[in-house]
């Protein structure tokens, strides 16, 4: 087994055990992670929470409904890179959008999902209202993989800079991005780095985004930027 595959599989197994047994976060939750109503990307989620677990950062995972939540590893690059990952596994959701108070958290992360299923259904207005509340309060906001795209699509990065789109290597021009990637989301400035922190000015939220190649670094950057005090 490839070492990365082995580590990823172990991380998933540990996450599942912790979820099933209902273990509490290592401290009062400082991070809240929003998941889409439909399924999300398992590998990116595991990489994200593994850093928080390692560093003792408490977090809440929130979705539309309580109970088992399906994570799925895709059949494309993810499956090739991690051939031993299960195609589907579950995480026990213990809090919904109705159960949380954004004032209890220091950072909001819009988590990984699938492009065509990211946000839909009755939970969308609730999630959007909480996101807007966090933004209005100047809370740092993170978007990872399709979570970053959600922030772009909904105008939170209009005129601001986001991470490099994940489908391209090296320097990416805005023209290339618009013609081949997200042709309707052209109000943001697309950077050349796989992690980018756009610092808020005048009380605006600082927004950190990352593509799927840099999820671990994204989590560590959140800790160093916003959770060191």
Topology (elements, then pairings):
Elements: H1 3-21, E1 31-34, E2 40-41, H2 42-55, E3 59-63, E4 67-72, H3 77-81, E5 88-93, E6 95-96, E7 107-110, H4 123-136, E8 141-144, H5 146-153, E9 161-162, H6 174-180, E10 189-190, E11 195-198, E12 207-210, H7 215-226
Parallel strand pairs: 1-3, 1-7, 2-4, 3-6, 7-8, 8-12, 9-10
Antiparallel strand pairs: 4-5, 11-12
Describe the structure.
The structure is a single chain. By secondary structure, the protein is an alpha/beta fold. It has one domain (3-226): Class I glutamine amidotransferase (GATase) domain (Rossmann fold, 3-Layer(aba) Sandwich). The chain has 7 helices and 12 strands. It has helices at 3-21, 42-55, 77-81, 123-136, 146-153, 174-180, 215-226; strands at residues 31-34, 40-41, 59-63, 67-72, 88-93, 95-96, 107-110, 141-144, 161-162, 189-190, 195-198, 207-210. It has a 7-stranded mixed β-sheet with strand order 6-3-1-7-8-12-11, with helices on both faces. It has a 3-stranded mixed β-sheet with strand order 2-4-5. Strands 9-10 form a two-stranded parallel sheet. Strand 7 (107-110), helix 4 and strand 8 form a beta-alpha-beta unit. Helix 2 packs parallel to helix 7 (215-226). The termini are far apart. Mean pLDDT is 74; it is low at 1-8, 16-26, 167-172 and 179-185.
